[in-house]
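name: query_chain
kind: protein
chains: 1
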Amino acid sequence: MPPEHKHQPEFESFTFASDKSFSRDCFEHFADGLPKSMYRAKGFVRFEDSSQLFNFVAGRWDLEPFESAETQLVFLGKEIAAQKSAILRALDECAQQADE
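structure:
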């Protein structure tokens, strides 16, 4: 009889969506501060003046023009569920800064 394997998910993910515009400076600061346990994040970000495709891989990220009516992001990493609320708060802060 083969040994029993307990599969624990090595990677966790979550999504974020918003119809608000975001402060570009705030979002860039947010992207620079993503935790080392975050391996991948991707999606669309709507700024005050444009929409951009956000691509984050292992600490490096970029933005490129892309048409999108809303912000939609997916985050993938190891044990990131514990950091989800802080990440979502930071994104909400970027949306609030755009409103100011």
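note: The CA atoms of residues 86 and 92 lie 10 Å apart.
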